[in-house]
Every structure is written in C-alpha cells, then in structure tokens.
Design brief:
This protein is an alpha/beta fold. It has nine helices and 23 strands. Bound molecules: flavin-adenine dinucleotide (FAD).
C-alpha cells in the first residue's frame, strides 16, 4: 500500500483530504493525516475565540471518516526528506511515499526584545485559549493593546470592544493607519468605526521593547502601560519549516515548482502558509492550493501530466464585531452590514462543507 502523509489538518490539509476522498482513490493508496489536534481549528475565527464571543466548540470541524484515511494525533517534531520519515512525539517514525507539509504559521516578533515573552498570541488554538483567558480576566476598565493593525488585529480589537465594553482597547501600528494594505476608502471606514466605538488607534509606533505591563516606542522614546498585549504584527511559517535548509522566499515560505512540489523533492508538496505563493497567506489560498495538490496526485496515479489552472481567489472579508465588516471584491471595497453577512455565510458554508 502506498501512503500520502499530510502534515497539518488546517485549511490546506483538510481541503486536500476532502478533495482526495471525493474522487476515486486507487486501491493501493491510503492517506494518513497528522495533527496535534483531533479536529480542524477554524483559524480565521480565532479572533472571536480570543475575545470570548464564540465558544471553543464552535470553531472545531471534525475530520472526515473514510476507510482510506487514518489519523495520528501528536506533535510533529521533524521531517527527514532523505529517509522519507516524519518524527512525531510519542510515535514510531512515519514513512511516506508522498508528503504534504501544511503546518501553517506562527508569530513573527521582528527581533523585538520581550515581545514573545510578554504578549499573547492567536496563532494556534491552544495559544488563543490562553489569550481568551487573559483578555477576559483583565480587571474592569483595564487596558488592552493590540500590536499590528492588519486584518487579524482589527478583528480582535473590534470583537473585544463588543465583548468587553468596559475595557480600554488600543491598536498600535508601525504605519500611519490600520489596514494600510487596503484602499483608502476602506481604511477610513474602519478608522471611523474605531473612533465611534472608542478604540484608540496609534500609528507610526515602532516598538523597541516589550515588558510585563509596558511597551516602549523606539521612535519617540515613550512607553505605554498595558494589562494585556495581543501580538498580531507579523507571521512566518512554523518553526519546523524555519529549520528546514531549503530554498525560501523573503518571508521564509518554501519555494515550489508549478505543481506545488519542492523542486529538489518531487514527492513533497507544500500547502498554505508554509508555501511561497504570489499572494498573501490566507485560508482561502490554502484551500484552493489543497485542491490543486489533489489534482496533481490524481494525475500522478493515472500516469498523466497535471494541467493546473491559475489559482483564483475571491476577495477578502473582515469583521468589525458581529454587525459590521469590510471586504474587497475584485478591486471594489464593500463596507458595513453586507460584507459581515457574507462573511458569516462563508463561515457557515465552509463548516458544513468541511464537516
Ligand atoms: C485572526 C485571523 C483571521 C484570519 N482571517 C482570515 C480570513 O478572513 N480569510 C482568510 O482566507 N484567511 C484568514 N486568516 C488566515 C488563515 O487562517 C490562514 O492563512 C490559514 O489558516 C492557513 O491555512 P494552513 O492550512 O496553511 O494552516 P492552518 O489552518 O493554520 O493549519 C495548520 C495545522 O497544522 C497543525 N500543526 C502545526 N504545527 C504542528 C506540529 N508541529 N505538530 C502537529 N500539528 C501541527 C495545526 O494544529 C493546524 O491544524 C486569518 C488568520 C487569523 C489568525
């Protein structure tokens, strides 16, 4: 029996498994998915778990049950590409015929002293649970600081505002404003929402040091007091991928050929936030790429050459609490209640589809 081993059952890995089992798998091929969790965690919604507006249970999607799919749950420690073995804590080494690396990303702290130690993360399910506990234990009228005004920072700040109206919520960014990668109209809409909901926004802040209860701005030599700091100021592939001595792009993502394979190891595919792609990492991109990897594997099994189309993404959606949001469809910003409803609809559909 030949084995496809998939590392990580997130947006990329889960899409791949679902796609593989929906089409006919050859008699002599089986799938093994390895993850530390016995379900997919819907990472795109971790901001709501952190803020306390959804429960843990609502963000878990069961992995598919299928006679050809097996699971190993544990911490993946490393991969030996020469010996074709994966080491998982507490398990015998796992061999593979084809490997897919889909382990997602972790925080990037840009070398800022104390940032990792004194901030809270939303990059893993487990870290987000801790962040939830810290945020919801802040004393009444305490101060929360979100570092990084990108999509996830904005979503955390807005959701927390609704969850804890008593708290002082502040969002810091190195650029002039939040969501600097988005069109001006959208930026202004979000800034107005924050102003109306008393979320403080501070731009041009370049943190030089983080301590317990205090953040230092290297630009102005001033500091900010804080009860809890949430880090949303950058991502990079997980540590296991950081350790791999292979060609990478400037953000540390693994370089691939047109079939999503490592150029030097054509039996190894990479999906999602670990893969170098022509667009920003996203759940949507990971899912689309997972489906293409399934196509490539089916072609290999049929002895044909895969013909992959261009990966197409539908746009970006973000939430501002439960009633408002923003998005980009094509090049057009959409603002207010409609994108929020669309985002809820997309989540509902993906839960049904994945589950
Ligand atoms: C707050 C927030 C909001 C976001 N909003 C959006 C959005 O609106 N739209 C969008 O498209 N994207 C969004 N994203 C980005 C999106 O979540 C990621 O791009 C996507 O999850 C990447 O998919 P992936 O399969 O690469 O990794 P993941 O979905 O992160 O899956 C990785 C899997 O690997 C497992 N894993 C990792 N390391 C190990 C290990 N050592 N051992 C065992 N298991 C391991 C994890 O448990 C996990 O199941 C958001 C992200 C955040 C944090």
């Amino acid at each position: 029996m030949k084995k496809v081993v998939i590392l990580g059952g997130g947006y990329g890995g889960a899409a791949l498994v679902n796609e593989l089992i929906q089409h006919h798998l050859p008699q002599d091929v089986s799938i093994l998915l390895i993850d530390r969790m016995p379900f997919q965690g819907l990472k795109t919604e971790y901001y709501a778990l952190a803020a306390g507006t959804v429960s843990d249970l609502e963000l878990r999607v069961s992995f598919p049950i299928h006679p050809k799919v097996q699971y190993v749950y544990g911490e993946i420690q490393d991969v030996d590409l020469e010996a074709k073995l994966v080491n998982v804590e507490g398990h015998d080494p796992v061999s593979y015929d084809w490997l897919v690396i889909g382990l997602g990303c972790t925080d990037k702290y840009h070398g800022i002293e104390g940032a990792e130690q004194y901030s809270s993360s939303i990059q893993t399910f487990s870290a987000t649970r801790k962040t939830y506990a810290r945020l919801n234990d802040v004393k009444p009228y305490g101060q929360v600081t979100i570092v990084g005004g990108g999509l996830s920072g904005v979503e955390v700040a807005a959701e927390l505002r609704e969850s804890r109206p008593d708290l002082n919520v502040r969002i810091l960014d190195r650029g002039p404003s939040v969501l600097s990668a988005f069109p001006g109209k959208l930026q202004r809409f979000v800034a107005e929402w924050f102003k109306g909901h008393e979320v403080e926004m501070l731009g041009h802040v370049s943190l030089s040091r983080v301590e317990e209860g205090q953040l230092y701005d290297g630009n102005t030599d001033t500091s900010f007091l804080t009860d809890v700091t949430v880090w949303t100021a950058g991502i990079q592939p997980v540590e296991l991928v950081q350790r791999m001595d292979l060609p990478k792009d400037l953000t540390g993502r693994l370089l691939l050929n047109e079939f999503h394979m490592l150029p030097a190891y054509n039996d190894v595919f990479v999906v999602g936030d670990c893969a170098s792609m022509p667009f920003s990492p996203s759940g949507q991109a990971a899912g689309a790429q997972g489906k293409q990897i399934a196509e490539v594997l089916h072609s290999i099994w049929q002895g044909t050459t895969p013909k992959l189309g261009k990966l197409k993404l539908k746009g970006v959606l973000g939430s501002l609490g439960k009633k408002s949001g923003f998005g980009i469809m094509g090049n057009t910003p959409i603002l207010g209640r409609v994108p929020r409803l669309v985002k809820s609809g997309v989540l509902w559909r993906s839960k049904r589809h994945l589950g």
